[in-house]
Specification:
The chain has a single domain (4-179), classed as Flavin prenyltransferase-like (Rossmann fold). 39% of the residues are buried. It has helices spanning 19-28, 42-45, 81-88, 95-105, 118-121, 124-135, 159-165, 169-179, and strands at 4-10, 31-37, 54-55, 73-79, 110-114, 139-140. It is an alpha/beta fold. The chain is 37% helix and 17% strand. A six-stranded parallel beta sheet has the order 3-2-1-4-5-6, sandwiched between helices. The structure holds flavin mononucleotide. Flavin mononucleotide (FMN) binds at residues 11-14, 38, 40-41, 80-83, 115-117, 120, 154, 159. Flavin mononucleotide binds at residues 11-14, 38, 40-41, 80-83, 115-117, 120, 154, 159.
C-alpha cells in the first residue's frame, strides 16, 4: 500500500523539539511526512536530525512546481497561540497558515496540539479559536496527556518537561479515527 501523505505543521514553542520523533513515528505508522515549519519554529529544528524528510518553508515562486502532494491528514504539533488564532480567523499570510486554512477548507482530517502558557491562554481568543477549530472538525489533543476533552494551558517553566513526555501516538490515534 502506498503511504498516506501527512503534513506536520510545526509552530514556535518547546514541543517543536520533538519534530524528529514525530517524523520517525509517522513513518512507522504508515505515513509519508512533510514538515512545514513556521518561521518561529526554525530554531527548534536546527539541531534535530530530520534525515531526508522534506521540509517546506516559505511560498514557492510562481514558476516553481508544487512541492507537495495533497495531504491525507495534517498534524499541527505544537500549535502556538499565534497560529491557533490566525488559522481560526482565516489568515493565510504565510505558507504554513495558507496550508492550514486550505486543509480546513477542504475537510482534511487534522489533529492539533495547542501549546500556550496560562497568560496567553487567558486571552479570550484562546477559547474562541479552539471552539472554531473544533466546530470545523479539527481534533484538539491536549499535549499533557492526549486527552481530547479539554486542552489545558502549559504551566510556566514546564514546557520542556511536557514536550519530553509528549507521545506522538496520541496524534496518530486521533488521525486514524478520522480516516475511518
Ligand atoms: C523560547 C520560546 C518559547 C515559546 N513558547 C511558546 C509557547 O509555548 N506557546 C506559544 O504560543 N508561543 C510561544 N512562544 C512565542 C511564539 O514563538 C511566538 O508567538 C511566535 O510569533 C509564534 O509564531 P508561529 O505561530 O508562526 O509559530 C515562545 C517563544 C520562545 C522564543
Amino acid at each position: 500500500m502506498t503511504n498516506r501523505t501527512l503534513y506536520i505543521v510545526v509552530c514556535g514553542a518547546p514541543l517543536a523539539s520533538r519534530t524528529a520523533d514525530g517524523v520517525k513515528a509517522a513513518r512507522a505508522n504508515g505515513w509519508d511526512p512533510y514538515v512545514i515549519p513556521t518561521e518561529a519554529a526554525l530554531p527548534w529544528l536546527a539541531d534535530q536530525d530530520l534525515g531526508d524528510t522534506r521540509v517546506i518553508t516559505g511560498n514557492r515562486t510562481p514558476d516553481q512546481p508544487k512541492r507537495t502532494p495533497p495531504p491525507d491528514a495534517v498534524a499541527v504539533v505544537p500549535m502556538t497561540f499565534n497560529t491557533l488564532n490566525a488559522w481560526a480567523n482565516g489568515n493565510a499570510n504565510t505558507y504554513a497558515l495558507t496550508t492550514l486554512c486550505a486543509s480546513l477548507g477542504s475537510h482534511t482530517p487534522t489533529a492539533a496540539a495547542p501549546f500556550a502558557k496560562h497568560d496567553l491562554a487567558g486571552h479570550p481568543a484562546w477559547l474562541a479559536s479552539l471552539a472554531v477549530l473544533r466546530y470545523a472538525g479539527v481534533t484538539i489533543v491536549d499535549p499533557h496527556d492526549g486527552s481530547r476533552a479539554a486542552a489545558e494551558p502549559v504551566a510556566s517553566g514546564t514546557g520542556n518537561e511536557i514536550a519530553s513526555a509528549f507521545r506522538w501516538d496520541w496524534i496518530f490515534a486521533a488521525l486514524e479515527e478520522k480516516q475511518i
